[in-house]
Amino acid sequence: LKKLNIDHKIIVLFYNSVISSLLTYAISSWYSACSDKLKNDVNKPGEKVSKMLCPMYKESVIVPKCVYEKKCCSLVSKILKDPTHPLFACYNLLPHGNRLNMPFCRTNRFHDTFVPSSIKLFNKSCVLSCYVCHSNTSIVHLSIIVSKTIVFDNY
């Protein structure tokens, strides 16, 4: 592609729309269970495309690892917002209210599933603050800071 003098914008557009969309399909369900070698193999096409591009377009290449981290944080925040979600009971706050409780994982097979890996990633990359106010009705107020602040109240 580099020898054919194809415009960098077209290369980025093709990679992001075709290759990256295939690599990141349902990434939140399978990426955490992959070995480090497989994760590197999944990220290799993006690295190769980035090497071909000028510095102006390198930032616009979608990297699967970043997509996974964003999707996990957004899924966890959606689950925490909805008390009727089936996975809501799996996400418990620690007593100080700043982080989520990591479940005990007896096997690596369970440790590599979505819930423990998303809690680990959420505690590492996202800030969670919580306080509970009790009055006539209990009000739970959560502020989740991922890239912007999302505030919600449950009455």
Radius of gyration: 19 Å
Structural class: alpha+beta
How would you describe the shape?
Answer: elongated
From the N-terminal CA to the C-terminal CA, the straight-line distance is 57 Å
Parts with pLDDT < 50 across at least 5 consecutive residues? 128-155
**Count of strand segments:** 3
Residues in β-strands, percent? 5-15%
Helix count, DSSP H or I runs of 4 or more residues: 7
Main beta sheet strand tally, sense and closure: 3 strands, antiparallel
The residue-averaged pLDDT reads 75
Strand order of the largest sheet: 1-2-3
Summarize the amount of helix as a percent range.
Answer: 40-55%
Task: Summarize the helix and strand pattern as letters.
Answer: HHHHHHHEEE
Main attributes?
3-stranded antiparallel β-sheet; alpha+beta; 155 residues; 7 helices; disordered C terminus; 3 strands; single chain
Describe the structure.
There is one protein chain. It is elongated and about 60 Å long. It has helices spanning 8-23, 27-30, 36-52, 55-58, 64-81, 108-111, 114-125; strands at 127-134, 138-145, 149-154. The chain has 155 residues and is α+β, with helices and mostly antiparallel strands. A three-stranded antiparallel β-sheet has the order 1-2-3, covered by helices on one side. Strand 1 and strand 2 form a beta hairpin. It is built from seven helices and three strands.
